[in-house]
Design brief:
CATH class: Mainly Alpha
Number of helices: 8
Number of domains: 1
CATH topology: Serine Threonine Protein Phosphatase 5, Tetratricopeptide repeat
Number of strands: 0
Length: 119
Amino acid sequence: MTHRQILAVLLTAILSPTFPAVAQRLTCEGDGYRKGLCLYQQRQYVEAQRILLSVVQANAEDPVTLRAKYFLARAEMKLKNWQSASQHLREIYSLSPLFYQEWSCDFLLGECRKKLGKD
């Protein structure tokens, strides 16, 4: 197959209305943060929440723990758990103000506060 034919096949698959359904069927392998992130990306927020919470509760002194807390907060927001998401975002600030700033957590916290009627 030529490069053009391969590209045409890929574009057809990506632009096909069934592509999201195919992507949803992909399984998230592994465990911990990677699995939680994969589930979040596939919009499986309840499962992502469960996995990411277990990573956070393990309280490992590992950079992925902070990222797990971030995506846990994002999953909580998707599930409309505004208070819980707010708490996770505030904890991120207390653990690493630099991460909080770089990952735009202030914006997310503001969105949670709006939904809670605090702004």
